[in-house]
Design brief:
Elements (H helix, E strand, L loop, with lengths): L27 H16 L4 E3 L9 E6 L11 E13 L4 E8 L2 E11 L1 E7 L5 E7 H14 L15 E2 H8 L1
Antiparallel strand pairs: 1-2, 2-3, 3-6, 4-5, 5-8, 6-7
Bound molecules: zinc ion.
The site of zinc ion (ZN) has 5 residues, from helix 2.
Length: 174
């Protein structure tokens, strides 16, 4: 197990566009990178993490939400390891999303995300998959894909008026 350091907003690597994963996927080194991403996500209690957040500019993210009694409004979803992911919007319905980010600790902001998406990616074995996701799982996938293009949640906020510390979010907005 290896928990990696998560880069924080301001680190220029978070603004880079990550590159496609090719033949290196099946190497031990890359498989170890995937395991480290999972370990780091779980250690930080994140719902997802993208490789550039640990300084690796490759198109891969992981996401997972286990049953959590502290967040009864969050529907659990299994672990997804998405290599070279793409997202197709299944309709134009948008939902409000109060998002946080491991790279922007203790901060929340409100933005719009698509409610229903199709996640298209390859798994860690190189096998292509498609998964229909909605609500929280769809939001996490959109957030993580943004990281692969150097986009942070603050870029998508309609107004900075909702930029909120976690404590105030729980007090006033949760
Ligand atoms: Zn993030």
């Amino acid at each position: 197990m290896a928990v990696l350091e998560v880069l924080k907003m301001g680190n220029p690597l978070l603004r880079e566009t990550s590159i496609i994963v090719e033949n290196e996927l099946k190497t031990n080194e890359f498989q170890q990178t995937i395991d480290n991403l999972i370990d780091t996500m779980r250690f930080q209690n994140g719902a997802g993490i993208a490789a550039p957040q640990v300084g690796i500019l490759k198109r891969v993210f992981t996401m997972e939400m286990e049953e959590n009694h502290r967040y009864p409004n969050k529907t659990p979803f299994p672990i997804y390891i998405a290599i070279n992911p793409e997202i197709e919007f299944l309709d134009n319905t948008l939902v409000d999303s109060w998002e946080g980010c491991l790279s922007i600790p203790n901060i929340r902001g409100k933005l719009k995300r698509h409610k229903r998406i199709l996640l298209k990616a390859t798994d860690r074995n190189g096998d292509y998959f498609e998964e229909e996701l909605d609500n929280f799982a769809a939001i996490v996938a959109q957030h993580e894909l943004d990281h692969l293009n150097g986009t942070l949640l603050i870029d998508r906020m309609e107004s900075m008026e909702t930029l909120t510390f976690q404590e105030e979010y729980e007090k006033y907005w949760m």
